[in-house]
Amino acid sequence: MTVSSLAIASAALATDACDSCPIRHRAVCASCEGEELDRLAEMKTYRSWKAGDVIAMEGDELPFVASLVTGCASLTRTLEDGRTQMVGLLMPSDFLGRPGRRMAAYEVTAATDVTLCMFKRGAFEVMLADTPNVSRRLLEMSLDELDAAREWMVLLGRKTAREKVATLLAIILRRASNDAAPLRAQLPLTRDAMASYLGLTIETVSRQMTALRKAGVIELDGTRGIACHDLAALLTEAGDDEDGTFLS
Amino acid sequence: MTVSSLAIASAALATDACDSCPIRHRAVCASCEGEELDRLAEMKTYRSWKAGDVIAMEGDELPFVASLVTGCASLTRTLEDGRTQMVGLLMPSDFLGRPGRRMAAYEVTAATDVTLCMFKRGAFEVMLADTPNVSRRLLEMSLDELDAAREWMVLLGRKTAREKVATLLAIILRRASNDAAPLRAQLPLTRDAMASYLGLTIETVSRQMTALRKAGVIELDGTRGIACHDLAALLTEAGDDEDGTFLS
DNA sequence: AAGGCGCCTTGATGCAGGTCAAGCGACGTG
DNA sequence: CACGTCGCTTGACCTGCATCAAGGCGCCTT
Fold first, then answer.
1. Top-level CATH class of A159-247?
2. D chain positions with any atom within 7 Å of a protein CB
3. What span, in angstroms and rounded, lies between the C-alpha atoms of A153 and B198?
4. Could you report the per-residue pLDDT of A49-85, keeping only the tens digit for each?
5. B 105-164, residues with C-beta < 7 Å of strand D
6. Nearest protein residue to C6's C1' (by CA)?
7. Which CATH number among 3.40.390.30, 2.60.120.10, 2.30.130.30, 3.40.50.970 corresponds to the domain A3-156?
8. B113 SS3 class
9. Which of B93, B88, B92 is nearest to B24 (CA)?
10. Is A166 helix (H, G, I), strand (E, B) or coil?
11. Strand, coil or helix: what is B56?
12. ipTM for the complex?
């Protein structure tokens, strides 16, 4: 409403990680007009967690919805006997919390240090109801997540351990480095978290990582750093080396 | 707009499977007002497929969105080497097609005989844009599907073959019979489709079905009929019978 | 009636990935 | 410094499911 809040809004529009938008993405900001941005700016608060912190347990009251600003968080489901499967991996600009449902359906854990931009449910849902641009964007984001979940199901149901690990590494490498070989990244996940993502055990993940390294398709730098000159090789040739060239 | 179309709308409201609503569900119809129902009635057309028919291949142009009226259809993804994983199972009132994307992202196959209620994309999207009730309902449905996909991921990633089969049977039994033991159903899926759903082979599905029958937790009637007096037993005790009582 | 086909079941065997166990390097703490 | 812990790796072994193969049953066609 005031000149200063509009100035903040314009500044936000100049970056990809828009600061004033619940969905934290330029595509939305571009369609948010002044008044909406003002309302959002008044609703939001920030909060941070350390790597490993549990942000919410399954069944907890989650009195906010939020947009992930920095870091990486996971959604996991645990069966009665303790088996656990990751079912969501949130990266910056991803949305957390379901409008209209206060209970957390999954355990939410900070994989790395995390900052959330949080909105009180009441205010957010009022805004959703009378801001078609934002609700349409939220629908798009849900459908993108559904597509991602379906790709993930193919991975869980049909891929071999080596393909699983290669696929996950490729996803992370692509997100981290915007092209320009060699692709490099710091893994935001522990081996445990990777195993949970992939439906494998930690030992199998570890073995496949060293197998990929020995096959020459990736390089490891310490326990978190990875590099890859050829994503295609990672994804297709992974599992060759039949003559054992790299093992001798 | 006319008296007769309003009459049709009211009649539709009296049943759960609403005939005039793109989302085919009373919850939506209850929030759809007269004018919207009229517009929907003018947009829709019906079309049927036989069991086994391919409704759309991955990458096909899908010039409509639709609501599944009767029967059961599957979404599947196939890897380059032919491995295939089901990633969606549509039942009556489920929605098919993504607004804003004309390409089919998955192969759509009729599991049983199927009828779709179809809407031209252009008209549907115009209506979406200025009908908040319907677009909100579509968001809810997407989020429900996302939850279902995540349950499915737990199944694919962490459950044993026996648990997988038991879980699928329980889902079908619950949908088919509204309580009142013994639960009975005709499976809408072939063993092949079940294997595709579960990330297993057809042989393993078959073996687990007979194991569950021998353990006494289900009965089989021909190849498609199943019954179960005790869902809890199916889901928890599945895999016991350690002393072989039922095998002697 | 014979033959063929689609769908399902059952058996024998092999292997990918799980399980159990040991050890290693980095880091923090008394 | 010794010690414990945490995250990771590696090895040895085992098992659940895939694979390969055969056969049964219902149904259609000729």
1. mainly alpha
2. 7-12, 16-21
3. 10
4. 999 999 999 999 998 999 998 999 999 999 999 999 9
5. 160-162
6. B190
7. 2.60.120.10
8. coil
9. B93
10. helix
11. strand
12. 0.88
